[in-house]
Amino acid sequence: MNKETSPVAGKRVGLFPTCLVDLFRPSVAFAAARLLEDAGCSVHVPDAQTCCGQPAYNSGDNTRARALARQIIDAYREFDYVVVPSGSCGGTISRHYPELFRDEREWQDAALDLAGRTWELTRFLHEVAGIEQLPGHYQGTATYHDSCSGLRELGIRTQPRRLLGAVSGLTLREMPDTDVCCGFGGTFCVKYPEISERMVSNKVDCIRQSGADTVLAGDLGCLMNIAGRLHREGVDVRAFHVAEVLAGVGNTPAIGAGDGS
């Protein structure tokens, strides 16, 4: 498939990079943009985009969450699709924005319109763009962690695995309990650190059992949490966002490598 024959050729895509990617791992956004451009999309990141409001929403601060949601709705009105390299932020926009505005008809209509155009990255590449060939090459054995929001809110499970199957050099090996939470959960890891630490230690044990040298996921929050625990336990396993491997990570260091996580 080339850009001219792609079902999304020429479509205007608003890339929503997420706060964590913007602040801690911009290479994920660049990888996502490359994948979308290779599929024939015209990719844009609006200057007015900011946090999706998920932390406020999860903490019960609906007033602030609605203010942020309105800003996102306005910033992404003009695009054919909105693509997010995160199940949690994607789930907030596509599932929870309409709930936030259930008592405001005009904004709820706008939220539903945005929700219908919003896609998590791997789901968009697999289901909408129909990607079969990828630029990435990765020499190693990887295991994939299913993030809670991506799996349970958006049904993201087979899509990243299908795409990873097209990456030359990569062997994919499932870990036990791949669908069990890593303990990050946004503010959960701050409110309940002891429980969170136990959960991520269990996840590290599962990664060890897989025998993989790399762990991949579609949510940076999960990956930062897992990479930090791998580092603290002295486990030599690299961590990357799935977009980085699909696009070709090049010389990009693994998440947590050398940063004291």
What are the salient characteristics of this protein?
261 residues; alpha/beta; Rossmann fold; 2 domains; 4-stranded parallel beta sheet; 8 strands; 49% helix; globular
Tell me roughly what share of residues is in helical segments.
40-55%
Strand ordering within the main sheet: 2-1-3-4
What is the rounded distance between the termini? 40 Å
Tally of distinct domains: 2
Global outline: globular
Radius of gyration: 18 Å
Number of strands: 8
Unreliable sequence segments: none
Structural class: alpha/beta
Task: Please tell me about this protein's structure.
The structure is a single chain. This protein has 261 residues and is α/β, with parallel strands linked by helices. The protein folds into two domains: 12-127, no CATH class; 134-247, Rossmann fold, CATH 3.40.50. The protein has 13 helices and eight strands. The chain has helices spanning 19-24, 26-38, 54-58, 62-75, 87-100, 105-117, 121-128, 148-154, 158-164, 188-191, 193-210, 220-232, 242-247; strands spanning 12-15, 42-44, 81-84, 118-120, 137-144, 168-172, 214-217, 238-241. The strands form two sheets. It has a four-stranded parallel beta sheet, sandwiched between helices. Strand 7 (214-217), helix 12 and strand 8 form a beta-alpha-beta unit. Helix 7 packs across helix 9. The chain is globular and about 50 Å long. 47% of the residues are buried. The mean pLDDT is 94.
SSE order and pairing:
Layout: E1 12-15, H1 19-24, H2 26-38, E2 42-44, H3 54-58, H4 62-75, E3 81-84, H5 87-100, H6 105-117, E4 118-120, H7 121-128, E5 137-144, H8 148-154, H9 158-164, E6 168-172, H10 188-191, H11 193-210, E7 214-217, H12 220-232, E8 238-241, H13 242-247
Parallel strand pairs: 1-2, 1-3, 3-4, 5-6, 5-7, 7-8
